[in-house]
Structure formats: structure tokens, C-alpha cells
């Protein structure tokens, strides 16, 4: 009996094969997006040096805009894809995200002035912002409840893997070779995404019943080992749920004012705030500066690459554990662990300013590795999963899109504020502030965060 239970929930089970393949397909674009994120930090150093591979100078002001325009592009991607996903469908939105990402690498390759890089980063942000809106929703609709968390966390695993690859290749590979090679990834993605069916939920809302059943059978493998050619009770149940929801009328402002919806908004606000102001994403962009100011004598670039490996380990741990322990326990472990790790990091850097702690140079790397691991295990890997799952089904697409747009604005704000805050108040106060955000969020989640493991995505 135990063996059968394990097999029934493993993503390697043949019944889930098409769900896994569909997830791996969309992960090609998130992987390429991650490379774009990791590519920036080492490349900016090259572009601002005397040995720049480009023929035009890149000032500090230019570099700040190249970095932060990602956030503005992400906002536009959030809003545009959020608006379109219920009109043209999930598949069409998934498909149209590739061209702007292709343009990013083309503009990087043919850059003749700094505006090429700025526009490219904006388009890369647009594609990434769209990914964070439609991919979690797409996966939540095609995935079985037993493996939905695992498949959804694979998105951030692919992003973090891409970030590590971006760190490495931009450090050791010539500037023009990188975009020439990486541009092939979104092209492959275009080909593979073309064969993916639309989600059955969207087709049912459009009253395309034959196509919806065909899509349902594809993702649930009902036409192979689970043949149900005459009657499919699971599909009939899904159809009934979608039709009942359609009969209840279109979305109105009253749907956003229910007690359940308001509680979800409060939880979403806390998730969005701690996701950015915990500093976990800013650390990726300013990791070298953090280690340079930490009192450690270790090479900052080496520490940064190690952080990339730790990020992947944390996200991979989430994929293994999310459908075993659930979302809430991992989020609590993440915020609580970060609060402790960041507070300890602040203490070390505080005493490093007045005491000789050179014999403990490994401590900043150890503490930041712990912070990065637990942060990616919860806040990074699961924020998008929880944001999609907590909202009532009727308003989920709108709320998920709005949440991603707000998150993108917070990304832009945090990337601008973080270096200024660290310069004005010092690294210790910065880390203690981030620790305080994590501690308060931990208390909120402990009381109010609802577990969504096993929750149906088709009914509330």
C-alpha cells in the first residue's frame, strides 16, 4: 500500500508525464530569464572598465537604469499578460512571451549605445513579468493536486539555475558569444510551446467542450493507460464546476469585498512586502558589495558564485518538500530562519568594524549561505505558488496579475533603495532592518496564513 501511495504522487509516474513535460517546456523560458538576471552583475563591471567589449561608455547612472528598468518592464508584463490571459487564453500568452525575450539578446548582441541595453532589459523584464503571472496559473490548472506544488516550484528552480549559469558565463565567456548562444533557448521554447494544448478550464469558459475534453485527456493521460472514451467523471465534474461559476455572473467589485477575499488581500500584501524587503532578491544583485563590506577577506566574486549554488539547493529542497509538508511550514521556516540569519550577520559586521575578526572570515559566507538557502526554500520558491492558490477562484486571475504588478514595483523600489540605505546606515543596520521585516512577517504567517496544500484550483 505504501509503495502504491508513493508512486501515485511521484512526478515520474506515467500518469503525470504530460504535466511534467509541459512544465519543463515553460521552464525553458524561465531558465533563459534567469540567465539574463545573472548576466547583469559581472557584465556591468566589464562595461564600466577600461577593457569594455563595447564601443561606448557606461556610467554609474546608466548602470542603475540598466538594472532597474527590469522592474518597470516587469510591471508592464504583469499588467499586459494579466489582462490578456482570460481573453486570448493561457497558451497564447505563453507563446507571445518569447519574442520580447528574443529581442533582449538581439539588442545585447548588436548594442551600439546604452539605449540598446536599456530597451533590452525592459523587454527582458516584460517577458519575465509575464512569466510570473501566467506560468503559475497555467501549471495550477493542468497539474494534479498531488504534484502541483512540486511542478510550480520548478519555475523558480529553473530561474535560480539560470542565475547561476548567468554568473558563470558572464564572468568567463566573451560578451558577444553569450547572447548568440542563449537566444536559441527562447527559439526552442517557441517550437515546443506550440504543441501544448490550452488548459481545459479556459476552453470550458469559452464553451469549447470538445477541445476542453481533449485537453483534459492530454494532461491527465486519459487516452493512454487510463482510457475513458465513453465517459470521464473527472472531466464532467470539472465542467460542472466551471459552468456553475459562469452562471454566478461576471466578476464585480462585491467579489473583492467578501471576508475571504479581504483576508487574502492582507496575506498577499504581507507576502509581497516580505518577498522584497527581506532583501532576499536585492542580495542577488548586490552580493559582491555585501561581502566587500562584511569584514570577510574572501573573494567577493567567488562568494557570489557560491551563493548561486546555494540558491539552487534551497529551491530544489522546496520542490522535494512542498507537497510533503505543505506551503505554510516552509514559509515559516523561511521567514524565521532569515530573521535569525540576518540578525546574526548584522551582529558580525557590527563587531567587525571595531575588532579583528579575520580568523572568522568564513562566517559571513556561512551566514549568508544559510539566509539564501532558507530564503529560496520558502520566500523565493513559494511566494508565486501561494499567491495563486490563496485567492478565491472567481477573482484569482485578476488578483494574481495585480499582485505580480505590485511585486514588480517593489522590486524596482528595493533595487533603488537598498544600496542607498546600506551606504547611509551601514550594512549592520541594513541587515537588522531586513531581519525585523522577516520576524514580523513570521508572526503574521504563523497566525493568518492558510495552508493551501491539496486545495482545488477549480472550486473554493
UniProtKB/TrEMBL annotation:
Species name for this entry?
Answer: Musca domestica (House fly)
Q: Where in the cell is it found?
A: Cell membrane
| Ranges of residues in domain Major facilitator superfamily (MFS) profile | 22-453
Q: Which InterPro entries match?
A: MFS_dom, MFS_ERD6/Tret1-like, MFS_sugar_transport-like, MFS_trans_sf, MFS_Trehalose_Transporter, Sugar_transporter_CS
Residue ranges spanning the membrane: these are: 20-40, 63-85, 92-110, 116-139, 151-169, 175-196, 264-284, 304-322, 329-353, 365-391, 398-418, 430-449
Name assigned to this protein: Facilitated trehalose transporter Tret1
- What membrane topology does the annotation report for this chain? Multi-pass membrane protein
Query: CDD domains of this UniProt entry?
Result: MFS_GLUT6_8_Class3_like
Q: Which Gene3D superfamilies match?
A: MFS general substrate transporter like domains
Keywords of this entry: Cell membrane, Membrane, Transmembrane, Transmembrane helix
The gene from which this protein is expressed is LOC101891078
Asked if Cell inner membrane is a keyword of the record, the answer is no
